[in-house]
Structure formats: structure tokens, C-alpha cells
Amino acid sequence: MEVDEYGALPERVPLTDDAGEFGGALERRRGGSRFLLLLNFGEEQQSVALGEEWSDAFTGEVLTAAEVAPIDMRLLRREM
């Protein structure tokens, strides 16, 4: 597996245990931050338990679980 230009390995995790084609997540690290992009390709809202506190990268809202609307994404940020 190769590292990207920022020295981070991409980590792929499912959005839910049975997400299948409906979603997924990609985590990247840069500087002192971790970014988590949650994807939902399905026609139903998806929920994911984060296990740790993350902040919505756009609103700053602190979350321990995230909802992702149908055909949408959510970008989260956490300081390392």
C-alpha cells in the first residue's frame, strides 16, 4: 500500500456493517488533523456511530454519531 503526498495511508471503513454499495468512508490525516469523509450513495439516510467526538468540518458541530442524507456526503474533522 502506498502513502499519499501527505504521508498518510488511506483507511477505508464501511458506513454501516451492511452498507454494501450504499456508502463508505475515507479517512485522511494531515498535519495535526484527521478528516473523515462519509459517503452515502443510497436512497435512504444512513447513520454511523463514530465512537469518538468529531466536528463537522463546515459547521463545527461536535458529533459522536453522524447522519448522512441520501446521495450525499459529510466531512468531519478531529484534532490528533
Order of helices and strands: EEEEEE
CATH architecture: Sandwich
CATH fold-level assignment: Immunoglobulin-like
Largest sheet: 6 strands, antiparallel
Strand content: over 45%
Quickly name the level 1 CATH class: Mainly Beta
| Silhouette | globular
How many helices? The count is 0
Fourth-tier CATH superfamily name: Golgi alpha-mannosidase II
Distance between the termini: 23 Å
CA gyration radius, whole angstroms: 13 Å
- Structural class by SSE content: mainly beta
- Low-confidence residue ranges: 1-10, 13-18
What is the strand arrangement across the widest sheet?
Answer: 1-2-3-6-4-5
Q: Tally the structural domains.
A: 1
Task: Specify the helix fraction band.
Answer: under 10%
Total number of strands = 6
Mean pLDDT comes to 79
Write the layout of secondary structure elements.
Layout lengths: L10 E3 L9 E8 L2 E8 L5 E11 L5 E7 L3 E8 L1
Antiparallel strand pairs: 1-2, 2-3, 3-6, 4-5, 4-6
Please provide a written account of the structure:
The structure is a single chain. This protein is an all-beta fold. The protein has one domain (11-79): Sandwich (Immunoglobulin-like). Helix content is 0%, strand content 56%. It has no helices and six strands. It has a six-stranded antiparallel beta sheet, with no helix packed on it. β4 (46-56) and β5 (62-68) form a beta hairpin. The relative contact order is 0.24. Mean pLDDT is 79; it is low at 1-10 and 13-18.
